[in-house]
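User: I'll paste a sequence; please echo it back and then give the predicted structure.

Assistant: Echoing your sequence first, then the prediction.
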Amino acid sequence: MRNCVLSCLTLVLATTVCAAEPTGLMLFENGATDMRIVLPVAATDAEKDAADELKLFLDRSSGASFEIVAEGKADTGVFVGRTKLAAQWGLPPAPPTPEQDEGFAIEVRSARKQVVIVGTIDMATKFAVYDFLDRFVGVRWFLPGRLFEVVPKRDRLVIADCAIRELPALSGRTLAWAMSASMYPDNPDPHLGTPFVDYSDAKGVRVDTSRRGEHAARWAVRNRFSMDGRLNGAFHGHNFIRIFMGSCFKEHPEYYPKRYSVEGAAPPHGSYGWQPCMSEPGVLQMTLDWGRDFFRKNPEHWAWFSLGINDSGGWCGCDRCNALEPSRPYFRGHPNMTDRYFKFVKQVADVMLEEFPDRKIGLIAYNSVVVPPTTIEKLPPNVVVLVTRDSFQYHDPKYLAVDLEADKRWLEVTNGNLYRYDYYSFEWLVPRYYPHRLAEDIRRMRDIGVKGIFADDGPLWPTVGPSYYVVGKLWWDPDRNVDELIDEFHTTLFGPAAAPMARYWDRHEQLWLKKRPGKWFEGLGNMTTQASMFSAADLTYLDQQFVEAHELAGADEVIQQRIRFFERGWEFAEHYIREHHLLGQLQSAKAPQAAAELAKRLLAAVQARHAFWAKFREEPRFPGQEKGPCEDYRLRFEELKHLSEWEQKHQAALALAAPRIASQAPQIHKELLTHYRAANADAKLIQALESASALALAKTTPNLVKNPTFELGDGNAHSNGIDWVTKGTAQHWAYYKHITGSFSFGDGVARIHGANKAEWIQTHAVTPGEEIVATVEYRLRADPPAKARLRIIWKDRTGAWLGVYKTVGFNADFLGRADDWQEAFCRHVVPAGAATAVFLLGAMDLKPDEVVEFRKPYFGKIAAP
């Protein structure tokens, strides 16, 4: 319990001051209480729910039964919500601005045996109740579900007189998917959650705040995350798709990117890979019409009309649009379209400011529009920008410095209307754990004037650990001590087993502090990047912490369950990490017998993972999950799309190794095939082992590669660093680099020098259903993280990247060291919708003096044997 002194009534950011008197208000003693919970006569449903929650936890802590009554039936007690008593005391305090309406007050006057708990809005009243339970009773909700809920049993509770005024440092504190009720808890909050968004209207989007599309996770409300939808994606996220759905494509194809002028082109589908033509007057008019309709249907001040770009790129290439953008280099792999976009935003915002002066336009500064514009000094004051950041990368001081400088410029451009859109767990399979960097970043945001935060997160709960508990506290008050919060998490949940569990999470944080360049979207959908950070010694150390924790927990079944919760998630990830290590060893094995033994170990590891998952997903649910319709948290593991393609890496590794084994030791190759068949290996893995015959078949069909010996051209290719180019390269070959690197060719060899990511490129027309085989010999005299790659990706008939599709086949995507020429091999069936195969010979993570070489490229269409 805190000692407090009486505060002035000034509303300050996250400040608590109370009276330091040894005596105070007796709330309960020895299982009895004479205090009641008092509600307004006309209490709202949310106020009633807040009172129910207060009673629930006070009863559990005290053993007493707190009665809930309406005001007028009791002169003493705990007054919850907008009671007459609260008004008499001048509570709640007025918000400093319309957006800062999440503040609350808790006031205790022991002489009168009265406590007032009230928020500026209903959601804030709930925050006040949970703060009261946290602060004075010691209740904690570390993670969703009863397993991670802690309610201390108390014989007696005395609360000193105090006047608490709290206001969060950051508003709109949203953890996206983590706050969905379906994610875990069995008692969702019925009065908060995502507003129902009606996209079926012919024009505009209607947000109905009287009903919720999905109830909020009670855990998130209890930890004071903003749960009323104020930073809902409908108000700032990808919205051009809703305005320009394919409905007007036939009448107005000019509204769409230039590439859709191809005869017979289908209208854009989904929100990925296209933007409207922003130089077309009709696009502006249609956007204004939708904006007016939206504001009329949604009078709430926090319902912003979104001008968020569609996901990824796909910008119009007409001459008028290109003239809107000054020439600037790519930024972190994306073309820079900021100026053309914000000129369009300003046109819309100027009109809306005049017609709807009290309303806001929201958008995300993302992908191609993440850099502040150079031709616009100030945006209209009704524009709110959520700038996308990946704070995980702030282990790199240079990366951080670039973002911080840009944030300061954004604050100027947006007149201070700047919010953060961040990525936290990022759907990683392994823990993406960095609480100390998070704490530093949150304080920086507060200090420079960022207003609030939205974190796009779909957590795998066993990989979260203390992170979200810490985040909830720091978003409210960035000055909280992060080490104290982490220590509280471990000591409270694990008791005698706290030390090894703390060491487990500490090791993860240390791993992600390894020195390396910051990289946007590092590891997203890429298990190889995640797994490569772990050594065998790391795995042994992390496993040992669980062994020690179980021993120290003894017969305490609750603590044992908590340990198992995190352990099972780690074991699932560890299977992938160990397979990653085996893949690397298989790729580098030279002797046929060694390669065959590694191939057998790889199969055993794959089958062990499948067996683990089959058992893991059938284990009984943890407390708090028993009742429907809540989803089991393990469903999140099944939704990781990149894991569904993990076996393609195994196919590629086996397809690379099999021809070497077959040519050097045919009997060993035959025995390996027999072993895989006897073990009931997946048919695709067996197909990969049979790659030698597939390669032989491929060599009997024409090689469609143009200029396979790189003999044409000027012999000295130079990239402009921002796009595929053909001028000045080996004829028929284009190339691309992300940031660093250069290209050269000669003597029949194409080379990539010192590239973080770069590719030689050639394209070929294809028809869905055709079977493709591609090969190349490569040489890479460098150790990891340097990698070579051979892959095929697809474009549709308009020239756009093919959207979501299920690849039938595999690429040779992460090829390791090869001191002598080594053949790489990939095999595909052309997916539906593809019109062009993009054949790529690439490199990743090369140091400045490292080189990948390629020769004898082959691309052919084969018939099934």
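The two ends are 77 Å apart (CA to CA). The CA atoms of residues 357 and 513 lie 47 Å apart.
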